[in-house]
Amino acid sequence: MLKITRNILVFLKWANWIVGIPAALICGLLWMAPAQFIAAAQAANAEENPQAIVAFMGIVVLMMIIIMPATHALLTRLIAMIDTVETDTVFSAINAERLRGIAWALLVINLTDLGFGLASYLASEASGEYFGWSPSLTGWLAVLLLFVLAKVFQR
Q1: 90-138, pLDDT tens digit by residue?
Q2: What's the pLDDT tens digit per position in 39-50?
Q3: Strand, helix or coil for residue 133
Q4: What backbone phi and psi angles, to 5 degrees, belong to 55?
Q5: 87-113 CB burial, b ≥16 within 10 A, e <16
Q6: Phi, psi of 136 (to 5 degrees)
């Protein structure tokens, strides 16, 4: 089962960059040529405020760029932890550090999600269209759990 999990995590690590690099390019285009995107939003019948929709798109893509390295760090550390199961060195100082790194990465992801929620609210207000978001308590509990587990692994 660990081998399957490891393969899935390796796939996700590569998928993170395969999706993320085009997102970075879109972000660059959004910031370099916003007029074209605003015109496209107007053509798509964005009723209230196409500038707000394009700004929201830019913020979302920018947040993806912030989340990409955090996701990479999380997946890389998790793969390394799985690799220690084979060598029977699971409860080690290095894995405690890896868990702490995973916790920090997940904290960055959760903070970015809060930023997305704020951007979603502001874009909804400005455009008259609903951009959905709901907070996730589970992600914040996972951050706390990982910091506690890192301390357990350290001892």
Answers
A1: 888 999 999 999 999 999 999 999 998 988 888 888 777 777 888 889 9
A2: 666 665 655 666
A3: coil
A4: -65, -40
A5: eeeeeeeebbebbbbbbbbbbbbbebb
A6: -120, 105
